[in-house]
Amino acid sequence: MAVEGVNLLEQLQSPALVVSRGQVSFANAAARNLLGAHISGQDVRIAIRDPEAVRVILSEAGGKAKITGLSVGGSVWEIDCRPVSAGERLVTLYDLSTQVSNARAHADFVANASHELRTPLATVLGYVETLMDPRAGGDEATREKFLKTIRHEALRMQALVSDLMSLSRIEASKFEVPSDTVDLVQLAREAAGEFRTDARVEVTTNCDSAKIAGDRGQMAQVLRNLIDNALKYGKPGGTVSVSIEATPTGWLLIGVHDEGDGIAPEHLPRLTERFYRADTSRSRAAGGTGLGLSIVKHIVERHRGRFDITSRPGAGTTASMMLPLRRD
């Protein structure tokens, strides 16, 4: 290959090789970083240890092939081989790992959402069909029991659809930095006051006002979700503590703590994954959709903040946020 062509390939960010009569005659910097500096001069069958990719590279027509695990385990690469002259091939490698990972995550999300909707829907249809049967539908006690179950499952589906729509809207706006001014001390007190239960929700703060650049509706949703979770999984009749601390370094620290049984350490890293539940039966019995903490994480990240969950079995759980304070 001409010197000009070699210089051009050296500037490419994608790994590129020139293979002459089965040997790697040139590898640009990206290819050397990926496959090692030693590949120049190597037999291509040793440089790229994938039978299908080697077959494509050595064929007269060239073509494309996919390789898995070329850089790290689970990575997916596409090789594009094109003849440039007799016995010489230009081989370009494209990293498809992110694309494949996103496609897999999307497929998993759709499958999980379908499963979560299918379960209550099957219950509703089963009870409706039973009520339509004159032999079973005539008993008033049975009818009332079945109708309560139908209503419960319908509300469960409604909550799930609402959370799915909410998550979709948040993801669509995740690159738009909110610009409204929101006082989180005031908002936290309003959110705590919405819960009329036997448990107490206490708000403590080191400031009278703590303003951030934010979306008021989304931040209210975050506080409601965290307080609601703390009430559901905390100690019955116990106290849920909401703490707000403005720091001299320009950050706002918010924590929501319950006095419940806590969460085992192995579950903590996955709690913000969509549909992940540390205790499936307990979560569904409490009316959880499996999306609440994922929604919270997305909203906090949109506000350029950080969300974390700490817990210890028997010592309760704390969901915490760190958000940048708005400067006057």
Describe this structure in words.
There is one protein chain. The chain has helices spanning 3-11, 29-35, 44-47, 51-58, 97-132, 134-137, 140-172, 184-193, 216-233, 280-285, 292-302; strands spanning 16-20, 23-27, 63-68, 76-85, 88-95, 180-183, 200-205, 211-214, 239-246, 251-257, 306-311, 317-324. With 328 residues, it is of the alpha+beta class. It folds into three domains: 3-95, Beta-Lactamase; 99-172, Helix Hairpins (Orthogonal Bundle); 180-324, Heat Shock Protein 90 (2-Layer Sandwich), CATH 3.30.565.10. The protein has a five-stranded antiparallel β-sheet, sandwiched between helices. Strand 4 (76-85) and strand 5 (88-95) form a beta hairpin. The longest helix is centred in the middle third of the chain and has 36 residues, at 97-132. The protein starts with a helix and ends with a strand. The model has no long low-confidence stretch (mean pLDDT 83).
CATH topology of the largest domain: Heat Shock Protein 90
Question: Overall pLDDT, averaged?
Answer: 83
- Widest sheet: strand order? 2-1-5-4-3
Domains counted in the coordinates: how many?
Answer: 3
What is the H/E string? HEEHHHEEEHHHEHEEHEEHHEE
Total DSSP helices: 11
CATH architecture of the largest domain: 2-Layer Sandwich
Characterize the overall form.
extended
Which percent range describes the beta-strand content? 15-25%
Please mark out the parts with pLDDT under 50 across 5 or more consecutive residues, or reply none.
none
CA gyration radius, whole angstroms? 28 Å
Helical coverage, percent range = 40-55%
- What is the strand tally? 12
Distance between the termini: 61 Å
